[in-house]
């Protein structure tokens, strides 16, 4: 656990030092759980968003994208159930005066048991070597099976208690597990209470006439209320999807773990409308499709897993999370839900407007069912950033810190370095930049020895460094250095663009799906 904490602190520190993420309003001591994306962070975030949008919208003929407003009519949130039921179970520790999400305390307890399972797996893998069968070990080792059964029992009870709104049993579970306050070590807990997460605001010029509104807690409702508008204007046929990216806001009382849980965040969601009775088939298909998207980035199959929900929302008939192995353990990265027809029927009821699809082949009207895929852009950013940050010991015994971002997502694709700041080398470097900048985000770097510049670009996540030296004046060639392998090639200037494009072209990465 201490090693995980150290790694996570390194991620947070590196993100600031290399211009990825700053604390919001830092000169005023910051605002808790609110962050600003800096110059490199804004580029990485944009590239992740574009990678998702291209895979989701551009690559699918039957999916279109919209950009709905953040402010919506307040009845929207009554219909969706957010006004009455968008709550987190909170518990306070009487000694430390700190507040926690009760369900997260229990999940963190289970995560520690998972850590024990991982230790057993590592020991066995070391003992058996190439003959080690992980799946067989997990299903047959008595100690591991016992650990997993304990996790399943705890999470099943937690899910049922939350579903039944039995908050007294949630507290009883915390006490039975002897869960302590992470800060004080105290077991002196209050009762568990529900807290609504929506941010309220007002619309209007005066207090007397102002309408009470909410900042949207999710982007999905903007899709549902526009279902018919999109279907008719786009002449869409079932099955079809509507995608959207955008900001959402939740008054998280227990916001923590850097950008993993924030009060202002961005979602990438797609609602797929299907004929009733086919939703399970589409649910399985979208599970497979979304996992392929994640794996296309090359961050390792062992870092992902599906976690099926023990507790289903009242409107869902299936739900799973794609979890990622963050520095603090496996946590939810993306949700895939079969939402039945709850959303459209609820908006029909509250608006008095029909939200149905006329199926010309079946010659009938019906309210479509919905399969949802929803991923947090900020969480995806953290997954990529934390997984990419590596400290390496090189063959000569020296060390380097390298941010191995997938090249397709890297904020800056190449740095152009004149060996010295004279003899016409800077001018050639500038010409190379002027040529490349139409296709890639590139930068010029002339400060310090070239070796230090390489290390700086490694740590910033730049996939390529292009060095202009005195030989360039004679042969019109440059040295291109690859971040991950540190391999250096002597290439013609006119070939540089093609070499970079081969590594960063989104087409090549998405074809891995």
TrEMBL record:
GO molecular function terms listed in the Swiss-Prot or TrEMBL record: glycine-tRNA ligase activity
Source species taxonomy: Bacteria, Pseudomonadati, Bacteroidota, Flavobacteriia, Flavobacteriales
Pfam families reported in the protein's UniProt record: HGTP_anticodon, tRNA-synt_2b
Gene3D superfamilies: 3.30.40.230, Anticodon-binding domain, Bira Bifunctional Protein, Domain 2
Subunit structure: Homodimer.
The protein's name: Glycine--tRNA ligase
Binding site for substrate: 101, 218, 265-269, 372-376
Keyword tags: Aminoacyl-tRNA synthetase, ATP-binding, Cytoplasm, Ligase, Nucleotide-binding, Protein biosynthesis
Annotated compartments: Cytoplasm
Domain of life (superkingdom): Bacteria
Aminoacyl-transfer RNA synthetases class-II family profile domain boundaries: 136-418
The keyword Cell membrane appears for this protein: no
Binding site for ATP: 250-252, 260-265, 332-333, 376-379
Gene it is expressed from: glyQS
Originating species: Kordia aestuariivivens
